[in-house]
Amino acid sequence: MATTDQFIQSINNGYTFKGEHVKIGVGMLDGKAVSDASVNIPFKTLNRHGLVAGATGTGKTKTLQMLTECFSNNSIPVLVMDIKGDFSGIAQAGSLNDKIAERYALLKETYTPAAFPVEFLTLSDEKGARLRATVSEFGPILLSKILGLNDIQSGLVAVLFKYCDDNKLPLLDLKDFIKVLQYAGDEGKDELEKSYGKISTTSTGTILRKVIELQQQGADVFFGERSFEVDDLMRINNEGKGMVNVLRLMDMQNRPKLFSTFMLQLLAELYANCPEEGDLDKPKLIMFIDEAHLIFQEASSALMQQIETVIKLIRSKGIGIFFCTQNPQDIPASVLAQLGLKVQHALRAFTAADRKVIKTAAENFPETTFYQTNELLTQLGIGEAFITLLNEKGIPTPLVHTLLCSPKSRMDVISDAEMDAVIAESRLVKKYNEVIDSQSAYEILTEKLNIAEEKTKEEQQQKEQAKEEEKEEKEEAKKEKDEPGFFDNPTVKQIGRTAASVITRSLLGALGISSYTRKKRKSLW
Hints:
Layout: H1 4-14, E1 21-29, E2 32-42, E3 50-53, H2 60-73, E4 78-82, H3 98-107, E5 118-122, E6 129-130, H4 135-147, H5 151-166, H6 174-185, H7 189-196, H8 201-215, H9 219-222, E7 244-248, H10 256-273, E8 285-289, H11 293-296, H12 301-313, E9 319-325, H13 333-336, E10 341-344, H14 352-363, H15 373-376, E11 384-388, E12 400-404, H16 416-424, H17 427-432, H18 441-482, H19 490-524
Parallel strand pairs: 3-9, 3-10, 4-7, 4-8, 5-6, 5-7, 8-9
Antiparallel strand pairs: 1-2, 1-12, 10-11, 11-12
């Protein structure tokens, strides 16, 4: 049986580092804290990512809070995805109570309440600085993966992006992209086909339905201006503390597609904009993703591949990513294999499936002579965890049952008034919460279509006017043709007939007199 001295020597050998590090707890043996066995985390290997797992109520969130405080105190900025809304307390100092006093006595540490510099961020209408990104920043490949498009549909999206680039049509929000889709499938189809090939109206319809599905999860709030700059996540305050950026996502649990969209865009943006740094003495940014299963449960195979690629490569940018979830198996094996730090809180064994999970989790830890890992996993107390990590040489440290330090900030939510006070002092709220609607593809195409419509209306009116004039000319000609002349007038005709009759009678009378006269004269002779 291992002795306490052997245990202390093993832990101190494994968790003593030359570079910058921070103490997060002490080792435990046979259920008791061993104050001389300090458990430290080296900053140099934090960019190897990590996992905090455990059943509900075992202290995962408080572990995230404690780690965040340690990093902030050492000038490392942190981004925390706050799904449950219980992380806001880090903005206010905590208070000492009997349980905390007892824990810190075992840790041989002094408890000093402290508040930390916080920026509250949001993707929706929650309080805080609004995070947005434009459609153009996503690009055709990433947007196609988010929408789950096939190769043909992805090719059409690429064509639409190319058309917008060539014609200086900024794609800022989803209404811009929808307008371009509608234009490509209707009025502008001939124009696009001349330069970019045949446009399938079936594909444009499918893509439009996918965009509407994304809109229904609130994506209209996320896409647009002003785009968030990732450098704003890496600020150090005047006191030398790293800023704690708390992204409030309480309304994201029923919108996993939007959450996945944001996460993938954020990781891609960080990777694209941060220079290669290699292995720094401490990371430029640590990101904690609470309830990490929300990223993966709706992710397509293409999206999963993209996440895995970014996780592998972003380490060289000096960025560490920590996943927090109830079950380690919520994280895909390909991602789990990339994680250097593992903090495993207690697991529950209520079913046969639970026991299999516990067995698998125990097998994933380094072998140890100090614990029966699979048994102890169900017996860990609140604020206790199994820990293993990579030392400064990249070698896994011995597995240690750890009594963790508790947070020094408030372990509860802050009030609305306290949050309003923090937000009132926020530089990012002033910078990003202004609503901007620049002229973009929607406005440009709408104006173009309106001009074309006005021109069409004008041409149609001219045609109708010409037809009306032609019709009037024909009717006038017909009227002139059918209208009676002066001598065709009945009155004139009657007068003519009367006059003719009179003249005839006069002539006949004259003829009669002459005939009579001639006969009379002849008889006289």
